[in-house]
Structure formats: structure tokens, C-alpha cells
Design the sequence.
């Protein structure tokens, strides 16, 4: 995440810390990639549904991703005579939206990394936000194993959502 301050001599070898930082950043990047793929699928599905005859005005196309997910959920709920793919897509969307706090933390959290004696890392992501003119501080602490499990769960949820939304688009075209 960050290098030691200039002029300070590290008390321990730098290599394990650099390796851990690379690993944490790779984990973070893979999680962000899963979110980006799901968000692209949400947007593509919204665009597709908005081109269905008579629906152009009914479907909102908001800028913010959370609002796009909500707009898609509403658009899916409004489909008359929905097939099973619509229900599956709504379930997959709900599963991905459950990770919304992780997305915010990955994008905006400031991280610090610690190592145990076996060079297994723990990352602490800290976020400072403003809500209703108040400062809100939040933190997420994950061990290397917890982070890997969370990444795998997120990647799986993203792939399922992308596949289900592809089915909805295919049916709507």
C-alpha cells in the first residue's frame, strides 16, 4: 500500500511487506473487476430493456451504479409475463447488491496491512464518509483467507448475475 517514509530504515526486511501489499492490491483489483463486470451487465440490460417498444420512457437510466441496479430491479419487476430468467436475474441482482458495502470500501477505503509470523496478511480498510452532514467512519478487517473467500463469493455472484442478465437480454431482443 505505502512505502516507508523517506529516511526511515525498516526494522524488518521489506520483501514480505511488499509481497503482501502486492497480494492485497491484486485481491482488491480482482474484486473491483468482478464489480465492474456486473455493473456493465446491469447497464447493458437496462439499455436493452429500454429499447423494447413502448418502454423507452418507463425505464430510468441513472448515472450512479446503485441507482442503476434499483432501476433494473424495477424494470425486471415490471415485465409482463416474465419467464423464469427474470426471477433468477432478480435473485442474482439481490445477491450482488449484498456486497455493496464491500464495493464502497474497496473503492474508497484506505488500507493498512499487517503480517503474522508466517507472512499471512491482514488488511484493514478504513473509510471516512459524510452522510447527512455528519462524519461516518467505518472499517473492514479481513485476514488473507477471509479475503480470498469473499473474493470467490463475489466473483461467483458477478458471473451468475452476468449470465442471468444475458438471458434476460436474449429474451427481450
Sequence:
Amino acid at each position: 500500500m505505502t512505502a516507508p517514509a523517506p529516511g526511515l530504515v525498516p526494522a524488518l526486511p521489506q520483501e514480505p511487506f511488499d509481497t503482501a501489499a502486492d497480494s492485497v492490491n491484486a485481491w482488491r483489483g480482482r474484486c473491483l473487476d468482478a464489480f465492474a463486470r456486473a455493473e456493465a451487465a446491469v447497464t447493458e440490460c437496462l439499455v436493452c430493456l429500454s429499447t423494447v417498444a413502448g418502454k423507452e420512457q418507463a425505464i430510468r437510466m441513472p448515472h450512479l451504479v446503485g441507482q442503476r441496479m434499483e432501476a433494473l430491479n424495477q424494470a425486471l419487476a415490471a415485465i409482463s409475463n416474465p419467464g423464469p430468467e427474470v426471477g433468477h436475474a432478480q435473485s442474482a441482482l439481490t445477491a450482488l447488491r449484498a456486497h455493496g458495502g464491500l464495493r464502497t470500501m474497496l473503492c474508497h477505503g484506505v488500507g493498512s496491512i499487517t503480517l503474522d509470523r508466517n507472512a499471512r496478511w491482514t488488511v484493514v480498510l478504513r473509510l471516512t464518509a459524510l452522510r447527512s452532514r455528519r462524519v461516518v467512519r467505518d472499517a473492514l478487517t479481513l485476514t488473507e483467507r477471509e479475503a480470498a473467500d469473499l473474493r470467490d463469493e463475489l466473483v461467483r455472484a458477478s458471473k451468475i448475475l452476468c449470465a442471468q442478465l444475458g438471458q434476460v437480454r436474449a429474451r427481450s431482443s
